[in-house]
Specification:
D-Amino Acid Oxidase, Chain A, domain 2; 393 residues; binds flavin-adenine dinucleotide; 18 strands; FAD/NAD(P)-binding domain
Length: 393
């Protein structure tokens, strides 16, 4: 049997693409190597942008609503910048991803879990996928198999040469300690080269983690996490176990193409992670939607659908923001202390950033605002920076 579309991987990117295609009447097979619900190392913070695009009601799996963040520098100088309106929703990825998978199933997707894709071959009239249980054919293949995507690597030639490394643990917590953390994200700068650490509250637990650019961290991530845990008051006395390591394939513009012939990649497989924040769920969902729309149009029009236009549409819609996020990331992570001092002296800057996370402002707009503020007050900032710089923090 020849399917219209095969989706490899049922994270947010794959489940969304599968759901959208089945809802349009296409014959879709989707599989994942894991059995669901499955754990995925992740902070699990959905930006408000997700709510704007996801056609699925997910509010019943939201475990906490964040109205902003408490920023720290090396776990000191706590700076709460909270807003009247939410900036994000914290979910447990096992529940959220399972919800999206179930929605895809209800829409008519044929779902196979516990089945791993082993290889892909493009033939003249179809794509064949070999899995741990069999071989299947389809007109089009979506690689939604995450950070270590075999489809991105082996078929599209996307090299995972640059990525961030991350450690994350879900720690049970309750009572007053958890209540004190709710409603806000905790974000610590200066604890790891080119990255940050976080504590995100959930229903009966917290996600504690750290991430930084691999080339800068140079194998010291465990040490950085240990130092963060030992300094961070919110984690004092907790038994930090089940720490998971993972990679984050953040976006960088290396001219790589995320589609070829009948095959395309979405989400982490396409390296669509915000290089400043590490946000990937929104981009996985949005690229899954773009992929579904293009595939639907191409399959209806054409016997030999060509997916190359998917790359152009993603580049036009998502790359401008990701490029601006990369510029912001270079500025902030090269000068984390200056960034932190700026936040202290101009907390309204973060309000402007929250609008980016809400989808009410573009990254480029925020970056221009930031540069204008730096140019308007270079001496004030520099003096403050030098003053704070000589203090031990
Ligand atoms: C520590 C950490 C913290 C993060 N925190 C956040 C956050 O707070 N907010 C945010 O927006 N983003 C965050 N991210 C990024 C986010 O987790 C990813 O961007 C997002 O999960 C990407 O979704 P996806 O569908 O592309 O891939 P995934 O969610 O990784 O899903 C890929 C799926 O493919 C399956 N798969 C893999 N290989 C195969 C195979 N060969 N055959 C079959 N199935 C396969 C996997 O089992 C998995 O289910 C974080 C990432 C990390 C590592």
């Amino acid at each position: 049997m020849l399917y219209d579309v095969i989706v490899v991987g049922l994270g947010p990117g794959g489940a969304t693409a599968a759901y959208e295609l089945a809802s349009r009447g296409f014959n879709v097979l989707a599989f994942d190597k894991e059995n669901f619900p499955r754990y995925k190392p992740c902070g699990g913070c959905l930006s408000l942008k997700v709510e704007k695009i996801l056609p699925v009601d997910f509010k019943h799996v939201v475990e906490d609503t964040a109205y902003g963040a408490v920023f720290t520098f090396k776990s000191k100088r706590p700076l709460p910048i909270l807003s009247q309106r939410p900036v994000g929703y914290n979910v447990s990825r096992s529940r959220f991803d399972n919800l999206l998978k179930e929605k895809a199933k209800e829409a008519g997707v044929c779902i196979r879990t516990g089945e791993r894709a082993l290889g892909v071959e493009e033939e003249k009239d179809c794509v064949r996928v070999k899995t741990s249980a069999g071989t299947y054919g389809a007109k089009v293949l979506i690689g939604a198999d995450g950070a270590n995507s075999i489809i991105a690597r082996e078929v599209l030639g996307l090299k995972p040469s640059r990525c961030a490394v991350a450690l994350e643990a879900e720690l049970p917590l309750n009572g007053e300690r958890l209540a004190a953390l709710k409603g806000r994200l905790l974000i610590d700068f200066g604890c790891i080269p080119h990255g940050y650490a976080w504590v995100f509250p959930k229903d009966k637990s917290i996600s504690a983690g750290i991430a930084g650019v691999s080339q800068k961290v140079k194998g010291r991530i465990k040490e950085c996490f240990r130092d963060f845990v030992s300094r961070e008051e919110a984690l004092a006395g907790l038994d930090i176990k089940n720490v998971h390591g993972w990679t984050i394939p953040y976006y960088y513009n290396a001219g790589q193409r995320i589609a070829k012939g009948r095959i395309l990649a979405v989400g982490d497989a396409a390296r669509l992670v915000d290089p400043f924040l590490g946000e990937g769920i929104y981009y996985a969902i949005r690229s899954g939607q773009i992929a579904a729309a293009i595939i639907a149009e191409r399959i209806r029009r054409d016997d030999a659908p060509d997916m190359t236009s998917y790359h152009e549409v993603v580049a036009a819609e998502l790359y401008p923001d990701l490029n601006a996020a990369a510029k912001l990331g270079r500025l902030v992570y090269n000068f984390p202390r200056l960034w932190y001092n700026m936040l202290e002296s101009e907390p309204s800057l973060m309000e402007s950033y929250y609008d980016v996370v809400r989808g009410d402002n573009r990254y480029e707009g925020f970056y221009s605002d930031l540069m204008a503020r730096i140019k308007a007050r270079p001496w004030r900032l520099l003096t403050r920076w030098l003053k704070k710089g000589v203090q031990r923090v």
